[in-house]
Predict the 3D structure of the following.
Amino acid sequence: MTVRPARPDDLPGFLALAAEVEHWFGPMVAEPGFHRAVRKSIDRGLATVAEDDQGLLGGLLFGSKPPLHHLHWLVVAERARGTGVGRALVEDALRRHVRAPAVVEVVTFGPDHPGAVTSGARVFYERLGFTPAEAAEPGPEGGSRQVYRLHLG
């Protein structure tokens, strides 16, 4: 597995990853706003991918306004979940974009969301040291969301 900054030609890979999780996050693949967000993150050097010889294993979109940073979007391909891809993407983003003291936030599924357990997202973030915080606005599909925070340094 290789983790690297995303390039413009990675957009189809991001869309393929998005297609795998639209049932949890709502429409993305056909949404021009999602395409713009991916391109903007790539252009700013804030998008990261993990890949192997079969294609993209995962993608991450990051946002940074120090000392506050955001994991805007993180998806690991179904075939690669549970293999360390998500951890590698997050660790790379933190290493490249965050200087302590800092806070990193991510909005993930609320505890009652059907994807909370199935996706493993809440447990994943907790294993990385994030802690649950306040509720966030519901997702586009109407499911609950919660902010998780990681305090560094």
